[in-house]
Design brief:
about 80 residues, alpha+beta, GIY-YIG endonuclease, 3 helices, globular, endonuclease, hydrolase
């Protein structure tokens, strides 16, 4: 099982979209500063998640979520 997720910084206007097989561990890594991309925007909260049976399906959906269009339509930014 693979999860596509979006997390939002609690202190700044920043949203990160990612893909993982262990959402709890991945969120911990983001909030602990292990990920260079998100380190300056800590802490985070999950604002969206959806599970997929295969990595291929999850990756396809992740690509869609990373578009500006999705962020405008769903998140209003």
């Amino acid at each position: 099982m693979f999860t596509v997720y979006a997390i939002s910084s609690k202190t700044r206007r920043y949203i990160y979209v990612g893909l993982t097989s262990d959402l709890e561990e991945r969120l911990h890594r983001h909030n602990s500063g292990y990920e260079q991309t998100t380190k300056p925007y800590r802490p985070f909260e999950i604002i969206f998640q959806r599970n997929f049976p295969t990595r291929v399906e999850a990756r396809e959906f992740e690509k869609y979520l990373k578009t500006t269009r999705w962020k405008r339509e769903v998140l209003g930014i």
